[in-house]
Structures are given as C-alpha cells and as structure tokens.
Glycosyl transferase CAP10 domain-containing protein (Oryza punctata), 346 residues
Amino acid sequence: MRVAITGGGRRLHVQLYYACVQSRALFTAWSLLQLMRRYPGRVPDVELMFDCMDRPAINRTDYGGGGGDGDHGAPPLFRYCTTRDHYDIPFPDWSFWGWPETNIEPWSKEFRDIKEGAKAVKWQDRVATAYWKGNPDVASPLRVALLSCNVTNKWHAEIMRQNWDEEVKSGYHNSKLSSQCTHRYKIYAEGFAWSVSLKYILSCGSMALMIDPQYEDFFSRGLQPEVNFWPVHTDVAAGGMCESIRDAVEWGEAHPAEAEAVGRRGQRLMQELDMDAVYDYMLHLLTEYARLMRFRPVEAPPPPAQEVCEASVLCLAGEKQRRFLEASAASPAVSEPCVMPPDAGE
C-alpha cells in the first residue's frame, strides 16, 4: 500500500494495491493513526510504500550489493521484517496493536498477562525441556524439520502442533500465551519468514532457544547470543538441530543460575520494549526517512487513495477487531520522545 502523511502530521491517506493477509492493513493504518495521536504535529509529512506480506523483496545483490554508488537505485520499501541480504525497512508489525484472528491482545496487555503467567511458575518448578508450539504448515522447512525433534527422552524437547481451526472452535482455550510459560526453555522457529512469536517467547522469562534466525524485525537486531537468548544451529556438520537443542538444554541444566539469567534478560528486554518505545521508534524512523525525501507529498493524493481516520478504520472493522483497536488506542505523549544516540557512521 502507498501511505501519505500530510498536513503537518495530521492527515493520513492510503492506497491499497492488493488485499493484505487477514487484518494487517487495517491494523497497520491504525498504528500510524495512533502515532499521529501520540505525537500530534510531530509526525513529518512523508510518503512511503508499505508491503504487508512476510518476505523481504528488495535484494541487495540487485542494487550493487554492499553499498557504494551501485545501491542508489534501490527502491525504499517498508515491511515487518528484513534480512542482511535485503534493503527492506523494518517497521513494527500489526500485532503490537492486537491480532484478533489468533486472539492475541494488544502488546501492552499481552505482555502484562504473559509476565503474570510467568510469575506463577518458578524456575525450579518449570519443566526441564525445550518447548515449541506453533503451526508447521506455513511453507517452513525449518518447522517441518523441528517436528522430528519431538522425542523428549532423546532430545529433551516437546514439539506441539498448533491447529488454529480447532482453536477458533474451542474459543482459543489451548492457545493462551500466558499459560505457556511452564518450561525452562522455549524454542523460536521462523515460519514462512520471521514470526511475531519471538516477543511472546522472550516474555516468558524462559531461556529462549533461537534456531538460526534468517529474518530480523525492528527489535530483534538488539538481541545478543548467550546474553538474552541461546543460539541453536541447524548445521549438520555441527550435529544438527535436534542435537543442538539437546545440548542447549543440557547446558542449562548444568548451569541453572546462568540459564535463568539468560531468560530474565530476554524478558527484561521485552519489558523495555513497551509501546512508548515502539512509538518512539516509529517517529524517529519516519523523521529520518522524511529528511531523505526529495519531494513534498501531495496534500490530498487523488483517488484511488483514500483519507483514513480513526472513525473510518473502526467503521470497517468487525466487532472483535474493533475491540482490539479501541483497546490499543494511544494517548498524547506527556514527555519528549527518546533521544537517538549520535550517528556512529554505520
């Protein structure tokens, strides 16, 4: 979709080119409206292209690779994730404002619930195995391979298939994230691309086992191996994925204080990633991007672009979507946004 913010950061126009998955477009437009509400008059006039699908599209090798004059022609494209091989610009994903299709609440409430669920089970009372629950049927060879690690006595892992159709019928009884902090180790496995599950896994305070992540969202670039997560590798020469999971669990059981500390640091990072930080990232990103623009956005883009406001988004939303949107509404900031550190020249 094409997005234009004009009027001194007070008007939003959106032009859709194709239907996004589920309610992503609706919630992404809402996120921009909430940024404008949080920092009235501070969001710059800006125009950008946003792709709400999963995989990055602007390959570095198509535009000169690692930099220099050859990469000036790369078209800027915003999306929810990127990789080191792509120029796509990472932007907070829709689920920070809620994901009604999976009954996941807006981030501020979901993190609070997960943290409370984590407090209910002390480290020494948690199951001493690595746990993963998700959907392997998303064109992810990694997740399909992970199913073979579900031999608990051999690999110290419990791999559970998530059937979302059944969850919808049962009222999401078995998919509540706050009740899934019962294991000392939790596995993060990418799906078709990156997965929104990373922030929820880290929130449990369990030691997160990340399997060779290829994709990055806007905050995962701040993760440090053996500090706030534990790396798991798929390299056959190094023993393979199941062996790497087993080794991680055995290390954690031999070093329980250190393993618990890794989990707590991951949880602390997610606590620091509150909605204030999310909105500040959005504001700084759009401000820096606007400074690079060589034209001024048209005040009122012609059709088929449509002006979007909170009322129009709520009007388009279904009953459950509307509840999530309203629950994630921002309030005007009472303090200045965080200050960006000096440019390190990178």
About this structure: The chain has two domains: 2-98+275-328, 121-272. The mean pLDDT is 94. The longest strand covers residues 127-134. The longest helix spans residues 275-292.
